[in-house]
Amino acid sequence: MICVIQLIYIKEGQEEIFHQFEDIAIPIISKYNGRLLLRIRPDENSFIESSIDKPYEIHLVEFDDEKDFEAFSKDEERKKFLHLKEQSIKASVLIQGTKL
């Protein structure tokens, strides 16, 4: 079991484009033995302390194994809409670990 945390930073004014991409990408996760455990859009009051830019969204996803995550990343349907991701996301940080 692997867990992936993604901190997502959106380009100003591109939120709707980002949501369009997520509407396509998120359902594909389950096709590859993945589960979206958390999708958080924190507001200013959610942060107690921060030494990095505050992300627009935080995702926690788990996959049964590394091969499933790689297959999700290479999914042909998802790849057709990567232009929406590229248009809307300024930066993202991907943190990968294993469930203990």
Describe the protein in words.
By secondary structure, the protein is α+β, with helices and mostly antiparallel strands. It has one domain (2-45, 53-91): Alpha-Beta Plaits. The chain is 34% helix and 33% strand. It is built from four helices and four strands; from the N terminus they run βαββαααβ. The protein has helices spanning 15-29, 66-73, 76-79, 82-88; strands at residues 2-10, 34-40, 57-63, 89-98. It has a four-stranded antiparallel sheet. α1 (15-29) crosses α4. The longest helix is centred in the first third of the chain and has 15 residues, at 15-29. 12% of the residues are buried. The model has no long low-confidence stretch (mean pLDDT 96).
Features:
single chain, 100 residues, alpha+beta, Alpha-Beta Plaits, 4 helices, globular
